[in-house]
Amino acid sequence: MTTELERIDREIERLKARRRELRRMPQDTFEPGAVISFTKRFSQDRFARSYRYAAIKTDDGLWYTTGPKQREPWLWINLMVWLRGDWDSLKFHNDFVFIQREE
Length: 103
Fold this sequence. Notes:
The protein contains two helices and four strands. It is of the alpha+beta class.
């Protein structure tokens, strides 16, 4: 019985942490045609490889991202889950503004 209660307590704590994370997640308030850019780190290590991406929102509310393996569009929630931990790198760009390479 105690083991089951401990398991339930751990699950409750996990769900509370997930709820806190979802509340912090940026919301999709962008119009179709909006462009965002972001940096995705593939580890939290300070020497981790990271890549810069851009994404554009289509009329149907899906997001298309740059990158050789990104052939399918994303729902916002899925994009944010994939970007988890790198939300602070999100930048919004007005329509028709080119994203310039930072030197």
